[in-house]
Amino acid sequence: MPDNANNSPITTHVQPTGNAKHTGHSQIATPDEMHPEQSSTLSSEQASVEKQKVFIIGLPRTGTTSVSVALLEQGLKVAHMAFTKQAFMLADAVSDTPCFSDYQQLDLLFPEAVFVYLDRDINTWLPSMQMLLGKMAPHLDEKTGHFHPILKRSFRHTFAIDKVAEPASSEHLIACYQKHQQEVFAYFNGREDFISIDVSHAGSLSQLLQFLGMEANAENSDVALGLSKPLSFPKLNVGRNVASWGEYKHPNKVNTNSAGPQSRKFFDYTL
Q: Do the Cβ atoms of 233 and 11 come closer than 8 Å?
């Protein structure tokens, strides 16, 4: 199961140049610069954040764990799923739920954010997603499921699991994948704060770091090892393993249910 999913107590390419809000992107700040104590709350649902946030908006099973771990290793604070305002404020980067369903709302709340779409060959994504839904299905029911309401809402919105008889059918999931991709590309068309990558492609990590204006940490770079090839993503959360994030220990991990001045309140927007 995805890490912290429970309702606890609380082909690589850059999109061509249409819906342009940003004309470029500034360099990612260091973790200390991005987390002054006084900037831990949102005011009137609008984040007064001058530095970038990174939102990973690929669907589940497209490499969100691999990207999250890679960004941790590059010094960013990362939340793999975020169900509270505070989690969003503490993290430099947020992936998975609810980013893949809420990217338009997050775009308005965090005007300096950049967005990373994760593409994956649909023939390999489909069985992986079917396996995940098979594990998650009993816990996604709106009334009886014990997953967090934000997670259930995101899955209902993107995969219409409450509107079809067989939400894990190949035909339905392929249609959901294609619809999500088309909507993302249409929304970010012409924007320079958006990139699409496939984490299985060689050098895709170097491509992402270049997009973010970051240089790889020397100790984690191929250059430091005397290699000239670009950096690639680690292969995590593969096969039937859907809990790699929870098993991965790192001081920069941000708790999905982080509590702040407003306890575990989420944003007030609706989809």
A: no
Does a cis peptide bond (omega within 30 degrees of 0) precede residue 60? Answer: no
Residues forming beta bridges with residue 46, ordered by sequence position = 43
Distance of CA 139 to the CA centre of its chain: 21
Q: Which contacts qualify for 207-215: CB closer than 8 Å, 24 or more apart?
A: 207/12, 208/67, 208/70, 208/116, 209/74, 211/14, 211/25, 211/114, 211/116, 212/25, 212/27, 212/28, 212/52, 212/54, 212/114, 213/25, 213/26, 213/27, 213/28, 214/27, 214/28, 214/74
Q: What is the mean pLDDT of residues 82-87?
A: 97
Q: What is the pLDDT of residues 88-131, one digit of tens each?
A: 999 999 999 999 999 999 999 999 999 999 999 999 999 999 99
